[in-house]
Design a protein that fits this description.
The complex is a heterodimer of chains A (333) and B (264). In chain A, 29% of the residues lie in helices and 26% in strands. Chain A is α/β, with parallel strands linked by helices and 333 residues long. Chain A folds into 2 domains: 185 residues, Rossmann fold (3-Layer(aba) Sandwich); 119 residues, Rossmann fold. The longest helix of chain A is centred in the N-terminal third of the chain and has 17 residues. Chain A is elongated. The model of chain A has no long low-confidence stretch (mean pLDDT 94). Chain B has one domain: HUPs (Rossmann fold). In chain B, β3 and β4 form a beta hairpin. Chain B is 31% helix and 28% strand. The model of chain B has no long low-confidence stretch (mean pLDDT 94). Chain B starts with a strand and ends with a helix. Chain B contains 8 helices and 15 strands. Chain B is of the alpha/beta class and 264 residues long. Classes of the chains: A alpha/beta (333), B alpha/beta (264). At the A-B interface, α4, β7, β9, β10 and β13 of A face α3, α4, β9, β10 and β11 of B.
Chain lengths: 333, 264
């Protein structure tokens, strides 16, 4: 473990650009590397890897490792695991960071299994213990009811997936210097056990839940699929996305893909409007990162009011039409 | 077709937050009185996925659960859903294992069970939510791993899997045996019928200890843990919710609208 040094960020490329979460990880990784007095490097896989190298350096990387084989242009678990584990065995990073994305969630645990490291998933904060120099990862557990801190004392690399939009993005400085290193090892085709047959983009009505600046969510209190239309209408007027709690999805009032919470999506919009949501932690954990939570519930004791910044104690049926109408009016004004 | 599913018994994640208590000293959760533990939601979906495969292709489902002797309750639940056999892995040495230790114990139990075509896990546990036992287990077993599945089918000798990605899903083809982690999008778990409940009650659920599966003491030694929990706390949330009011509800709604419009 004494030979393991430096911080390595697994970089993601989305639509030919560095993913926002990668820029956040470069910011966090830079700080950790400075505290350790070691290097920050980034791994960029895919044909854009080389051309984005300078950009990653501008965002804080000292070294960019890249393999521009087009095999990496579409995520393949087997190929990525082999490439990343190959690099880790050579570069021996002390710390490795991933975004808590569909790719990070697949790759990090697998890589951890292969390398025998110590991994904490879905982290909200990272720090270096000044005494031991261990990475201290903070993550939600028990559906957000509690926070745990974790360390890996001997296992290397110390790995973490970090929830997107949690840490501030790195600042760009185009005068920064760094080097780009091409990975020479070729992927052994015999490791490719899983074939990606097709990728299907799901068309969503309106705005995508994870990207939306406004989310309007309905809970069991909405009562029926028909009444859920009122929630959708408010979301539409605000140009926002529709969300729901697990019971609502289980009832089939909305598709499962709209579930916000521990077993669904994690969102952090500017405004999260929770209608008829009691506020079980399993749901709250999915929206706690919102700038402002607005709660509408007839039960003044509902837990949702403990996490909301704005509240309205009322039966939603009596206020939602007026609220929607007024917002429509203010929007057009 | 033989499917092995790893399931975990957890604190009911739907309990009201007021009932949630921890002991910061031992870094453990104090189970609230009168709230029975449940099967982890994702694991239950994995059982549902396996039952659907069995409905179509026949075969056998074996459940393993590492935990206290009480884990037999969740194993029995899966038997009532349609699983054929269940085993509980209980040993003092299994307590408080990290993800690596857990995957190791499961891998040893699977090797003892013998031949299989598919291993299913929930995508993460509903309590600690580490989300890595399945993948580490797959690496230990040396079989292909597919995570976040929302549909699984058998086509000839291969598995056809739909995997959830950010902007939709992927269709993957994997050989057998493979390990698949299942997400909730796979659909609701079935409710056990009367017959299933009766069969499940009668089934003998064996308990395996470390010695039964040949687990090495060094692999279960906490000193060799890959990760360690150094702190557990309940975040304090300031309840400074500003209540919007009005003479009438319509006026209150209007007042709320005026506040929301400033935020968007």
């Amino acid at each position: 473990m004494d030979t393991a040094k430096g911080v390595l960020v697994f970089g993601e490329i989305v639509d030919g650009k560095l993913a926002p979460v990668t820029i956040e990880l470069l910011g966090a990784g830079r700080k950790l590397a400075n505290e350790l007095g070691e290097e920050l490097s980034v791994l960029l896989l895919g044909s854009k890897g080389g051309s984005l190298g300078q950009e990653a350096i501008a965002f804080g990387a000292d070294t960019v490792y890249t393999d521009t084989d087009s095999i990496f242009d579409v995520y393949n678990s087997d190929a990525y695991t082999q490439a990343a584990s190959g690099l880790c065995k050579k570069a021996l990073p002390a710390v490795m960071l991933f975004g808590h994305t569909d790719i990070g969630c697949d790759l990090a645990p697998r890589l951890n299994g292969r390398l025998g490291g110590g991994l904490a998933m879905d982290c909200l904060a990272l720090a270096i213990d000044p005494a031991t120099k261990f990475l201290v990862s903070t993550r939600p557990v028990y559906g957000g009811n509690a926070r745990a801190t974790m360390v890996a004392k001997a296992a290397r690399p110390q790995m973490a997936t970090v929830r997107p939009k949690t840490l501030p993005a790195a600042e760009r400085n185009d005068s920064r210097q760094g080097k780009v290193v091409m990975i020479e090892d070729k992927i052994d085709p015999s490791v490719m056990k899983i074939k990606v047959m097709e990728r299907i983009k799901e068309e969503v009505e309106g705005v995508k839940l994870e990207d939306a600046e406004v989310v309007v969510s309905g809970g069991r209190g909405i009562g029926s699929k028909q009444n859920f239309e009122m929630v959708k209408e408010l979301a539409r007027v605000l140009g926002g996305a529709v969300g729901a709690t697990r019971p609502v999805c289980d009832e089939g009032w909305t598709p499962a893909g709209l579930q916000v919470g521990q077993s669904g999506k994690v969102v952090s919009p500017k405004v999260y409007i929770a209608v008829g949501v009691s506020g079980a932690m399993a749901h709250i954990t999915g929206c706690l990162g919102s700038k402002c939570i607005v709660a509408i519930n007839k039960d003044k004791e509902a837990n949702i009011f403990n996490v909301a910044q704005l509240g309205l104690i009322a039966d939603y049926k009596e206020v939602l039409p007026a609220l929607t109408a007024k917002l429509k009016e203010l929007k057009t004004a | 077709m033989h499917t092995i599913i790893c399931v975990k018994q957890v604190l009911d994640p739907e309990i009201p937050p007021a009932k949630f208590k921890i002991d910061p000293e031992t870094k453990k959760v104090i189970p609230p009185a009168g709230v029975p533990p449940v099967i982890s939601v994702f694991d239950e979906r994995a059982v549902e996925a396996a039952c659907r495969l069995k409905d179509k292709n026949k075969g056998k489902i074996t459940i393993i659960s590492m935990g206290s002797a009480k884990a037999a309750d969740v194993v029995r639940h899966t038997l009532s859903m349609g699983a054929d056999d269940g085993i509980v892995l209980t040993d003092d040495a299994f307590e408080n294992l990290d993800s690596f230790g857990t995957a190791y114990v499961l891998s040893k139990a699977i090797k003892k069970i013998g031949a299989f075509d598919l291993v299913l896990c929930g995508r993460q546990a509903a309590d600690w939510g580490a989300g890595q036992v399945g993948s580490i287990l797959g690496e230990m077993l040396g079989i292909p791993i597919i995570t976040l599945a929302c549909n699984i089918e058998v086509t000839g000798q291969a598995l056809k899997i739909r995997r959830i990605v950010r902007d939709g899903f992927e269709v993957l083809e994997a050989p057998m045996p493979s390990l698949i982690t299942v997400s909730s999008e796979i659909g609701l778990p079935r409710l056990p019928g009367g017959m299933g409940l009766m069969m499940a009650r009668r089934k003998v659920i064996p308990t395996w200890k470390a010695v039964d599966i040949g687990a090495e003491a060094a692999m279960l030694d906490k000193a060799n843990s890959h990760t360690e929990v150094t702190g557990l706390s309940v975040p304090t949330r300031k309840s400074e919710c500003e209540m919007i009011t009005g003479v009438t509800l319509v006026e209150a709604a209007g007042n709320l609208a005026a506040r929301i419009i400033k935020l968007v």
